[in-house]
Amino acid sequence: MLRDIRRIISLAWPVLIGQLAVVAFGVIDTAMVARYTATDLAALALGGSIYITVYVGMMGVLVALSPIAAQLYGAHRHAEIGEEVRQALWLAAGLSVPGMALLLHPHILLHIADAKPMLEGRTVAYLQILALGLPAALAFRIYSSLSNAIARPRIVMMIQLIGLALKIPLNFIFIYGSGRLGISLVPELGSAGCALATTLINWVSCLLGLFLMQRHSLLRQFGIYRKFSWPQWPRIRALLKLGIPMGLGYLIEVTAFTFMAIFIARFGATVLAGHQIAANLGTVLYMLPMSLGIATATLVAQALGARDFAAARRLGRRGISFAVALAMCISLLVWTSRTSLIAAYTPNPLIARAAAPLFVFLTFYHVFDAMQVSTIFVLRAYKVAVVPTVIYAVALWGVGLGGGYALGFDTFGITPRYLLGASGFWFANSLSLGLAAAGLMLYLRWISACSADPVPRTQAK
């Protein structure tokens, strides 16, 4: 057992550091634009929510490469990996077209948001610059998925850390202009400067990834650039068959949390600020079980490719158990140090008072979150995505958002006082994650137990 846990940890820690580096991009943007103008900060928030929705949905489709390549790697079918990567690059190019079109012409979405002219103008500029980096971001996701599939995530981590190191100086130059450095070359761009910095970093990361797919000794054996391949519909269809429900799953997660914040905003700025503290901490905590889930899924998929189904079941079970046990320990630590954590976020006693009751739900929320995310990644290793996405939709949208709305706003007039407002949303969201985790674990048990040959069977699901 300890050997399996060590293998999972050795793959998970580079993924965790890389994901934290990506999360830090948003923190840096917010901190630096907040010192520019309030309008630019609002444009960053509005534009960022639109961009992340577009990017996450498309990124989720391309992540389907990871379980496919991992199973091929486990089966030692290396030449087929090269072809899958080439087809994934064609798919990324195809997805970039509607993605860029939406980001270059976001006026319909901004009209729904009823943005004022000045805010709309800066948000459009922000999104149009990010549109130029979308193809690079999607191409780098292919390199990242391939590296995870063959259990080599450390170079991805290094590229993400390089991007983080570039982010602060590029942000400074493009947000405030180069005039502050005594060189009048770059004008002040405000929030658009963040987008320009991110776009440049996306292209640097993309070019490094494409270069390493040719030069890295382990990746070179796949012959990705050995020949040119036109799009092959059967392979692209297989990617879409797995990737579309995976992308929808990512979107359900993102939108469930986004709309939760939108509804909580109706209770006032103080309540929303308290929610933001709990939500921000929950996002950071989420990175650990997600990283463990990615690592576990890699090992499970490789075992499936090698047709060692007993090892796949064992690794999946131990990876999920380890993620949940670790989440329980972290939740206990968060609960015992909640006063200090809230104080570190804000000195405002009103906001602290609004955040405090949410930490009760955050402790359960994190455990259920660890359980569901580690389980869904293992299911993806089996190339199963449709049923988990349905479970997500019913649990996170139906129970989480619907139940949260009913409790938070006391729709039926029976909500206890301690579940009114943001607490009702957090209670329902925690319950929804628990239900999702239970459904996913039962489905995983059925898939792993009754499928003697999971590769062909689950491809049809």
UniProtKB/TrEMBL annotation:
The chain crosses the membrane at residues 12-36, 42-68, 89-113, 125-143, 155-177, 189-212, 242-264, 284-306, 318-338, 350-368, 380-405, 425-444. One of its GO terms (molecular function) is xenobiotic transmembrane transporter activity. Keywords: Antiport, Cell membrane, Ion transport, Membrane, Transmembrane, Transmembrane helix, Transport. It is a multi-pass membrane protein. GO terms for cellular component: plasma membrane. It is found in: Cell inner membrane. Pfam families: MatE (PF01554). One of its GO terms (biological process) is monoatomic ion transport. The keyword Plastid does not apply. PANTHER family: FMN_FAD EXPORTER YEEO-RELATED (PTHR43298:SF2), MULTIDRUG RESISTANCE PROTEIN NORM-RELATED (PTHR43298). NCBIfam families: matE. This is Multidrug-efflux transporter. It comes from Pandoraea thiooxydans.
